Structure formats: C-alpha cells, structure tokens
Amino acid sequence: MKSVIIQKSEDRRMERTIGFVGCGNMASAMIQGWVQAGISGDQIIVSNRSAEKPLKIQNTFGVHIGSNLDVARSAKWVVLAVKPKDIENVLDEIRGQLTSESIVVSLAAGVTLETLERKLDPSTKILRMMPNTAAALNQGVIACVKGRNITSVDFNETEELFKKLGYFLPIEEKQMHGEIGLSGSAIAMFYLMADAMGDAGVTLGFTKAEAIRLAAATMSGAGAMMLQSQKHPIQLKDEVCSPGGTTIEMVRSLEATGFRNTVIEAVLAAATKSKALSEK
C-alpha cells in the first residue's frame, strides 16, 4: 500500500503524514499497524516527555523524533496520545503551530470536542478517536467523532488512513462513553478472561502458555464466526450446546455465577468512568 500523500501548505511545508504527541502503548500500537500496512516510518514523527520510548520506536520503525512543536508544525494528522490530565497543557503549547490543513486527533478519554475546540483556534479541524491496541495487528476498532470543521474530504482521507488499523467506526460523541466500555477498554476484559482460562488450563495439566494460546485462538475463532456468519451470538452458542453435553454444563455454570451480569457491569463501569472524566 502507498503512504497517504501529504498536501503541502503554501505558507508552511508539511513534511510528515502522521505525528504523535505522546508515545505510550497506544501510539506504539498504531505506529506498528501503519508500518505493517505499508506506511513508511519516514512519514511519522513522534514526541514524548522522556526519550526512551521514542528511541525504541525509532529503532524499530524508523520514525522521526521531535518536540511537541515539531509534531504540530510538520504533520497533517496530529495525534494527541497523552493522558487526559495533560491534554489542555498540550493544546496550549501547540495551538500556534497548527496550520489550516492540520487535523488534530485526540485519543484522550473523556475530553470532549467542546473542550478541544475551546482551547484551539475556532477554525481548527478536530477529531476524537478511541482505538484499541489490536491496531498493532491491523485488527483494532477505531471509533471516530468528527468536529464541526471537518469536511467530507477530511473525513474520507482520515477513514482511508485509519482503517488500515482495523475496523473504522464513525459515531456520535454521545456514544463515545459506550464505545469505550464496549471496545476501547473491553479488550482488557478479554485479556483477563484468557489469563483466567490459562489458570484453569494449568489445573488441567497444560502449561500456562499452552492454555492461553488455546484460549486466544478460541476467542479469535469466536469473533470471526460472529463477524463472518452474521449470526446472533445466542444462535452460535445454541449450535454448540449438545443436550446433556459439556458445553451446556459450562454455560449453566457461567449463568449460575452471574457471568452475564458481571460483563454488563464491567462495560457500564468503564463507560461511567469515561463520563466522569468528561465532567471534570
């Protein structure tokens, strides 16, 4: 695949396609996914408070390292991958370096478009996104909310770039808290479930690594079955439950211990936390 072509400003040359302010796990996952999808590390610039993480990413993927200001002035998509508590300071720092072509992409949970728009120039193009770390394998979910200045061309170009990381889902801002519960944070629930299955596997005579591999492969297969067959998950569940068999006994045990409600409450807890962050 070809890298996205950068449109050059008449008053300031945009040298990179993608820039990251903040270089934690999510930024690393997205960079890995893009490089695997064919985007050159030469088209990516990163900044971070400490030098260790950017240097590691540079050595692995060939990206450029600069300051927050370098990222803001040289990238078309300026991805803010910092903690919510740091977002306003970053916005104050970079606002004077953004061009009319810059698209600011905030990954900060709970930070609303209103907050972003209040801190930046009124004409700034802004998007909110919530990806998950499966973007590293081009299997992520990337929910996207567009701000008032995003044109249809901007959004189409953004979708073409970000769908290289996985499933790109346009949503309304009021749905963002729910998306965080259902996907952005929920990926950790599947990791926790895999680890629990790993412990069960050890009890049953497998090594932890063998058991987790079995769990992960089973989760992957179940996801593929739901997405590709387009059958309701209850139908798929019923199809594998034989009368008096082992699978229905597992389902009975899960229902008896409140598994379904535990999942519901976990999703709602993450969504509630996201809402609380947005109200600070």
Short descriptors:
Rossmann fold; alpha/beta; ProC C-terminal domain-like fold; eight-stranded mixed sheet; disordered N terminus; 280 residues; 2 domains; 50% helix
Shape: elongated
- What's the tally of helices? 12
Structural category is alpha/beta
Low-confidence runs (pLDDT<50, min 5 residues)?
1-13
Q: For this structure, what is the CATH homologous superfamily of the largest domain?
A: NAD(P)-binding Rossmann-like Domain
> How many distinct folded domains?
2
User: What's the architecture of the largest domain, going by CATH?
Assistant: 3-Layer(aba) Sandwich
Terminal Cα span: 42 Å
What does this structure look like?
With 280 residues, the protein is an alpha/beta fold. It has two domains: 157 residues, Rossmann fold; 92 residues, Orthogonal Bundle (ProC C-terminal domain-like fold). Helices cover 50% and strands 14% of the residues. Strands 3-2-1-4-5-6-7-8 form an eight-stranded mixed beta sheet, sandwiched between helices. Strand 2, helix 2 and strand 3 form a beta-alpha-beta unit. The longest helix is centred in the last third of the chain and has 22 residues.
Secondary-structure topology with pairs:
Layout: E1 16-21, H1 25-36, E2 44-47, H2 52-61, E3 64-65, H3 68-74, E4 75-80, H4 87-94, E5 103-106, H5 113-119, E6 125-130, E7 140-146, H6 152-162, E8 166-170, H7 176-184, H8 187-203, H9 208-229, H10 233-239, H11 246-256, H12 259-278
Parallel strand pairs: 1-2, 1-4, 2-3, 4-5, 5-6, 7-8
Antiparallel strand pairs: 6-7
Helix pairs in contact: 7-12, 8-9
